[in-house]
Design brief:
2 strands, about 350 residues, globular, two-stranded antiparallel ribbon, 16 helices, mainly alpha, about 0% strand
Length: about 350
């Protein structure tokens, strides 16, 4: 690439990032949820569009489309006051604004690295709350390099922090995330093939799944010994992406984007494998709640390549498809594998 082309590319990326930051500033005027506890995907999808190379008109079009479902944030009359110990507000959505003020103060004083080093280990055991959207939003905020959005994202993860009950000590050890998820499926079918979670939201269905025999017996069965955390997270991400590619299941989509988000946040996660157990428990519960079945594919479906997938995602108003294609594209860039392409194709076929 010659110097003129390189300079033009760098300038285009910087211009797009400036657009993203302006839109994230505007997005902070809205609350973190809409409807009955549905996470706002606005900042996450904007960051994904930026990562996919969307131009300003596409990002503003998505903003206008999505913001119609949101309401302005209900800030306290005299402004939210930060608290000295933000951890005592974990799991309290009514404390979102105080949490956001606390993280904003900490970021201004200490910087992102120090705040994430404190916060991520204290939140990872509650990833199931908000259907994994806490870590997903934080990962996008880290990549966006937007301090206000990072404060809001950490506040949302903390406000929806919701640990699952731990499983019993596993009597078997299963090597590999794909084999582990398959074993959980097989145990569900063998124990109660008609079981299904009845709650309206994914996070509540995960709590229901955490009371079932397959969860109690196998959620802790994935072999962690001698597996470096980075390798574990990559194996998990590939297994979740492959499962989504095969099923197109909505809950599995969240497993796929969450497993990618935890790879982004890996530098701030505890390094001992046991500390990642709550993340695996959440994936096991989500997998049970999903009851994912293989898609019936049309043999004539067009097999789009990455350029076309990016183009279609940037033109889409489907926040989940945008986020999945972005997650898959970023995984492909860092750890090339055919599974990411198939997952992205499934998102846009749907």
């Amino acid at each position: 690439m010659n110097t003129a082309v390189l300079d033009s590319t760098v300038s285009a990326v910087a211009d797009r990032r400036a657009v993203l930051h302006r839109l994230l500033d505007e997005a902070l005027a809205y609350g973190p949820e809409h409807g009955q506890g549905m996470a706002s995907h606005l900042p996450m999808a904007l960051a994904a569009l930026d990562g996919l190379g969307a131009h300003e008109a596409q990002m503003r079009s998505f903003f206008a489309h999505y913001a119609r479902r949101l309401e302005p944030v209900a800030a306290p009359k005299h402004g939210a006051q930060p608290v000295d110990d933000w951890k005592r507000l974990r799991g309290r959505i009514e404390g979102y604004e105080a949490l956001r003020a606390s993280f904003a103060r900490a970021l201004a004083r200490e910087g992102a690295d120090a705040v994430l080093r404190d916060a991520v280990p204290a939140l990872v055991d509650g990833v199931s709350g908000g259907a994994f959207h806490g870590p997903i939003r934080v990962a996008h905020a880290v990549e966006s390099e937007h301090e206000g959005e990072l404060a809001a994202a950490l506040a949302y993860w903390a406000a929806r922090w919701e640990p699952l009950p731990p499983p019993v000590a596993a009597t078997v050890r299963i090597v590999g995330a794909t084999a582990w998820l398959d074993a959980i499926d097989a145990r569900r079918i063998a124990s109660d093939p008609d079981w299904r979670a009845s709650a309206p939201l994914i996070s509540a269905r995960m709590q229901q799944a955490a009371l079932t025999p397959p969860y109690l017996e196998l959620a802790g069965a994935l072999a962690l010994d001698a597996v470096p955390p980075a390798a574990l997270l990559l194996d998990l991400a590939k297994a979740c992406a492959a499962r989504y590619a095969a099923t197109g299941n909505f809950t599995v989509l969240h497993m796929a984007t969450a497993s990618r988000a935890l790879r982004v946040l890996a530098r701030w996660l505890p390094t001992n494998p046991g500390a990642l157990a709550p993340l695996l428990h959440a994936v096991a519960a989500a997998n049970l709640a999903a009851r994912a079945a293989p898609l019936q594919r049309d043999a004539s479906e067009m097999a789009f390549g990455w350029d076309e997938l990016r183009r279609r995602a940037c033109a889409s108003d489907d926040d989940h498809a945008i986020k999945l294609v972005h997650a898959a594209a970023m995984q492909q860039a860092g750890s090339p594998d055919a599974v990411w392409l198939e997952a992205a194709r499934t998102a846009l076929r749907g």
